[in-house]
Write a structure and sequence with these properties.
Helix content is 10%, strand content 24%. By secondary structure, it is an alpha+beta fold. A 4-stranded antiparallel sheet has the order 4-3-7-8, with no helix packed on it. Strands 9-10-11 form a 3-stranded antiparallel sheet, with no helix packed on it. The chain has a two-stranded antiparallel sheet with strand order 1-2. 5% of the residues are buried.
């Protein structure tokens, strides 16, 4: 009997090592949740012996419980790699119209040939419908649908108006406008930049330089003390 009790302890320790080894082996598996071996003692009873003097029969593995605490987040270069902070699951289905849902924490998604967001097993990621204002009031999975990325996301509109507000110090040193050189910071008093877009949606940087001309009053005025001298597109 003593041999069997000791053997049960060895088997339990082996189960614990197997569980730990499996956790280590899956350390880079996306969405993997570690497990923990939980044990229980084995009570011994017999109608021919007194319960006060009968020792236990060793230990047994009660369960290998999966742990659902928050794991660490890793950043990737794939814009479709997603992660959930806190509780919750991604919902996927094998077909776009299927109501057989699968719940997963693995957020390694990609686009298929039809621009649907799918996982590595070609299961479709599901999401709630979105209103025109960007909100969603759906809470039932029955209203969810597959997520498909459109071919285009709108028509580019070129910038037509620049609106800028700034304060320039009245006590700035007056400079000679004729000496202005954008490459020389001593020939202008201030500069600021903003991004504009052309009709193709390409971004450009507009830089405005401000020069306080000689003869300008030192006291603060509502208008006229500084003027944008030059706009350069980069």
């Amino acid at each position: 009997m003593s041999f069997n009790i000791a053997l049960s302890g060895i088997n339990a320790a082996q189960k614990d090592l197997d569980t730990t080894a499996n956790n280590i082996a899956n350390v880079n598996t996306t969405g993997f949740k570690e497990s923990r071996a939980e044990f229980a003692d084995v009570y011994a009873s017999s109608i021919f012996t007194a319960g006060k003097t009968k020792v236990g029969d060793g230990v047994s593995t009660s369960t290998v419980a999966q742990q659902f605490h928050q794991g660490s987040l890793q950043f990737t270069n794939n814009p479709f790699d997603l992660a959930i902070t806190g509780s919750g699951f991604f919902v996927t289905s094998s077909e776009p119209t299927s109501l057989d849902y699968t719940f997963t924490r693995a957020g390694a998604f990609k686009l298929d040939k039809d621009n649907y967001v799918v996982d590595s097993n070609s299961n479709f990621l599901r999401g709630f419908p979105v209103n025109t204002d960007g909100s969603s009031s759906s809470v039932s999975l029955g209203t969810s649908g597959t997520v498909q990325v459109p071919e285009t996301a709108g028509v580019p509109v070129q910038t037509s108006i620049l609106d800028i507000s700034l304060n320039l110090p009245a006590a700035e040193t007056a400079l000679t406008v004729a000496n202005f050189d954008p490459a020389n910071t001593t020939t202008y008093n201030a500069a600021t930049s903003m991004t504009v877009y052309d009709s193709l949606g390409e971004a450009h940087t507009v830089t405005m330089y401000f020069v306080k001309p000689a003869g300008a009053p030192i006291q603060e005025q509502t208008t006229g003390e500084f003027s944008p001298l030059l706009i350069i597109r980069q």
